[in-house]
Amino acid sequence: QVQLVESGGGLVQAGGSLRLSCAASGRTDRRAWFRQAPGKEREFVAVITWNGDRLYYTNSVKGRFTISRDNANNTVYLQMNSLKPEDTAVYYCAGSNGITWPPSRYDVWGQGTQVTVSS
């Protein structure tokens, strides 16, 4: 079973930037970021294929967040710029080996990292 470990969360002022990392103990073809704000359901943020040839973002982060991956280190990143208070959430990394695009099911999840954006 592949394990995913997120890091890079923290407290930042509105307009600031953070970069999240998701390290994996094995390969997952598609790697994604989700987030869950207090009192809300978990929502999709972004996903990337193994070779990075396809990316997909939720509308609310387009132009501000960038997902990328370094397969040599089996790590996926989420660069978050122009952060807003509404980006405050626990961010989760997830992996999928499915064939649909964007993936409809994720098989492995990390434990999450807290991102807090102050106004």
Number of strands: 11
Instruction: Give the helix level as a range of percent.
Output: under 10%
Beta-strand residue fraction? over 45%
Indicate the low-confidence ranges by residue numbers. none
Q: What average pLDDT do the residues reach?
A: 95
Count of runs of 4 or more consecutive helical residues: 0
Structural class computed from helices and strand pairing: mainly beta
Distance between the termini: 40 Å
Per the principal axes of the C-alpha atoms, what is the gross shape?
Answer: globular
CA gyration radius, whole angstroms? 13 Å
SSE order: EEEEEEEEEEE
| Main sheet makeup | 7 strands, mixed
From the structure above, extract its key features.
mainly beta; 7-stranded mixed beta sheet; 119 residues
Give a quick rundown of the structure.
With 119 residues, this protein is mainly beta.
Structure characterization notes:
There is one protein chain. The chain is mostly beta strands. The chain has no helices and 11 strands. The protein has strands at residues 4-7, 10-13, 18-24, 30-36, 43-48, 55-57, 65-70, 75-80, 89-96, 108-109, 113-118. The strands form 2 sheets. Strands 2, 4, 5, 6, 9, 10 and 11 form a 7-stranded mixed β-sheet that branches. It has a 4-stranded antiparallel β-sheet with strand order 1-3-8-7, with no helix packed on it. A hairpin with a 6-residue loop joins strand 4 (30-36) and strand 5 (43-48). The protein is globular and about 40 Å long. It starts with a strand and ends with a strand.
